[in-house]
Write a structure and sequence with these properties.
single chain; 255 residues; 45% helix; 5 strands; three-stranded mixed sheet; binds heme C; mainly alpha; Cyt_c-like_dom; Cytochrome Bc1 Complex, Chain D, domain 2; heme; two-stranded antiparallel ribbon
Length: 255
């Protein structure tokens, strides 16, 4: 059987057996904490903080960067991304804004930016939004256009199996019952707030970009590149539809 079929199968089995994935994640977290004394999420956040305070070729640190709420302000900033930035004239998400900061402010060349460092920085910056509400807006035409693209991509179907995100991620029952059209995108538990996260099932650190790329991979669709427009568009669409959700813990700890 293909990998994606297995994934869906296992998810359904867990559901049928009543194994709550959240409870299971909590249990795994406790276990790790007991054996290692520290969580992998905390280690990555620490690493991200060190990178944040490291001077780039320009002699500046990331404290000189604006993540949307002003230079060096991190508290709650990640909960308001993606958003349009005047200085780049683009909508940027957390990952993309980190790359902008590393290249434009710290002076690294684009090819010098390491993905693992971007993820560690994303973990650190996101950790400053725990307890904050997701607040993403569509004020600028660029944001509205990207949202429209994300919506299109989410409902588009393609490939040999003719499936797309919505095939697996929309609860049709609710839609028929006439609930707000997108209130149920990716379920009621506000999945936007699950990422960035540490995945204990395969010991990986992922941001939302990794999550979305993996889902494209699962359906045998070519994976859009990191920082590409389709990824960003889907992120904006998902974030907007998760507005108001409170971030329980960033980075999260998931299966
Ligand atoms: C074949 C079914 C399938 C398709 C199609 C699919 N996904 Fe997924 N997706 C899953 C499964 C299963 C999970 C949960 C995986 C896990 O728990 O490890 C998931 C998880 C996710 C999550 C994380 C949800 C959470 O609560 O943490 C996001 C976001 C997501 N998918 C986005 C997408 C997007 C965007 C697309 C379209 C490009 C897509 N998915 C297409 C099956 C699918």
């Amino acid at each position: 059987m293909r990998v994606w079929v297995w994934g869906v199968f296992l998810a359904l089995m867990a559901f049928a057996q009543g194994t709550d994935p959240r409870e299971e994640a909590k249990r795994q977290k406790e276990l790790l904490l007991q054996t290692a004394g520290i969580l992998p999420t905390e280690l990555v956040v620490q690493q991200g903080e060190e990178l944040f305070n490291r001077k780039g070729p320009s002699g500046k640190t990331m404290a000189e960067c604006d993540f949307g709420l002003g230079k060096g302000v991190l508290e709650g900033a990640a909960a308001r991304l993606p958003r349009y930035f005047l200085d780049t004239g683009r909508v940027e998400d957390l990952d993309g804004r980190i790359v902008t900061c590393l290249t434009r402010v710290l002076g690294y060349k684009p090819q010098e930016v390491k993905r693992q460092e971007v993820v560690a920085l994303a973990f650190y910056i996101a950790s400053k939004s725990t307890g904050h509400k997701i607040q993403v807006r569509l004020l600028f035409p660029e944001e509205r256009a990207l949202y429209a693209l994300g919506e299109k991509l989410f409902y588009a179907r393609s490939g040999q199996r003719d499936i797309g995100c919505a095939t697996c991620h929309i609860t049709y029952v609710k839609r028929r019952a006439g609930v707000l059209p997108y209130a149920d995108v990716l379920g009621e538990d506000k999945s936007w707030t699950h990422w960035p996260a540490y995945r204990y099932s395969n010991d990986q650190i992922w941001t939302m970009q990794d999550r979305i790329r993996a889902c494209y991979g699962n359906i045998g669709h070519p994976q859009p590149n990191f920082y590409s427009t389709p990824i960003l568009a889907l992120e904006l669409f998902l974030a907007y539809n998760n507005n108001g959700a409170v971030v329980e813990e960033w980075p999260a700890f998931v299966r």
